[in-house]
Amino acid sequence: MRTAEQPNPEQLLGLPENLLRPVPDAANRSLALTETEMLRNLNKEFRGNGLTDELYSKLVRNGAVMHMKNACSPSPEDVKILTPKWAVEVGVRIIGDPGLMSAAPRTPALDGIPAPVVVTGSAR
């Protein structure tokens, strides 16, 4: 939910007000590591068999991915994909409470996936 001090997406993008509409069946969550790995393997198989982009969009992007995001809920044991340290260090414009960025639970590194980075200091 947006608060009064947060700009709406149209303002951020310089678009006319109320141009963007929410998509009713799009869950706003990231995929867990296991979901992403399954999708990566599916992509390799799909592309390796020369199937069309149109079929990919229909079956994978608008099918499997939407189903995972809407019908499945990651458990607390599922590993989250974390922002790489280099990306955190680059600096970005933060809109909202920067303290919420460091509120993610700490998890151990897994097979080359870095552990979460605690964000400190102010944004540039």
Folded structure, characterized:
This protein has helices at residues 9-13, 33-48, 53-71, 85-90. The protein has two domains: 26-79; 82-124, no CATH class. The chain contains four helices and no strands. With 124 residues, the protein is mainly α. 37% of the residues lie in helices and 0% in strands.
Key attributes of the depicted protein:
124 residues; single chain; mainly alpha; 2 domains
Task: Characterize this entry briefly.
The protein is mainly alpha-helical and 124 residues long. The protein is 37% helix and 0% strand. It has 2 domains: 26-79; 82-124, no CATH class.
Number of helices: 4
Number of domains: 2
- Give the terminus-to-terminus CA distance: 25 Å
Strand content: under 5%
List segments where confidence is low: pLDDT < 50 over at least 5 consecutive residues. none
The computed structural class is: mainly alpha
What is the overall silhouette? extended
Helix content: 25-40%
C-alpha Rg (nearest Å): 18 Å
Largest sheet: none
Q: Encode the helix/strand succession as letters.
A: HHHH
How many DSSP E strands?
0
Give the overall pLDDT as a whole number. 75
